[in-house]
Amino acid sequence: MKKIVPSKIGSHGFSLIEIAVVLFIVALLLGGLLPTLSSQMEQQRRNETRKLMEEIRESLLGYVMVNGRLPSPACGTIPTVPGALNNAGIELIPASAALCTSGAGDIAVLPWATLGVKETDAWGNRLAYRVTPVFTGAVAAGTSATFLLSSSGNMSIKESATGNTIAPNIPVILWSHGPNACGAYMPSGARIDDDSSTPAPIYCANADQQENTNNTNTIYVSKTNTSTFDDLVIWISTNTLISRMVAVNKLP
Length: 252
Known about the structure:
The protein is 28% helix and 12% strand. It is α+β, with helices and mostly antiparallel strands.
């Protein structure tokens, strides 16, 4: 009887070369997807932060309509002050100034605890906040607001550090330092610096972002994000502030 030998065709496994080719193809596919996924995640963080900032804008308007003034920046916001101490997140007012070691004259952060809002943006850093002092003072007896119909903000929004003014006489500005976070305060209280200048840090090497990290003037920049400018800036105009106060009979 003739002996039948089973065919070996199709019974062998993958060779090392075949496996290597498959892994190489998979790596190429994943490598092509990673930039897309990273870009999508970054856009999601931007959208989350913009949404948060719009909500905070409404919180600020609600606060001023109830209290007749805007909140001052938070204390506990400079590098030497630990984030969990010194009333971090509470607005800096004369009654609590002794509890803060400094921060009154610096670009400070949003008083998130006073407003009852989230502390950080989608990148885990505190939102920056600046307000014209006339809108934060104590409300005098017999009045409903600390400011008048004639009051005006002292800050301006520009399209670049040396460009045209987009919005003048702004009383309050809120911004996120974006993904590169230069100039942002972390929850620890430390401030992020992307420049090695000494003795004093510049915080941001980009000129437009420098405008959003210093306190040497009242100019701020808001423009389309680029590879070197990624701040997200929002503000409330004097007209909007006044009209809301008139609507609730806080002015005139």
